[in-house]
Amino acid sequence: MADVDNARKTVLALLAHRASDATVCPSEMARALAAQAVSETRTDDWRVRMPVVHAAIDSLVEEGAIRLSWKGRPLAKRVGPYRIARAPCP
Listing from the earlier edge strand, what are the strands of the sheet with 83-86? Predict the structure, then answer.
């Protein structure tokens, strides 16, 4: 669970440092998590972090904190390739 919480924080931090309409690739999140792990002397293979990234994304989508899209089209849930963006402000 701590890994998912860290992944959630990572995606929100990545989005916070981007333009409000910018998107993030899930692999970018996994790479950021892998970079953190290297500093903690764990593996730097970002691919092994994708299940945690997907779990974090699923929970953030469910909460309405982020939105997903692919090629400019909104996605209701994570299916196939996707991009992550901030949810519109209410």
Answer: 23-24, 83-86, 66-70, 73-75
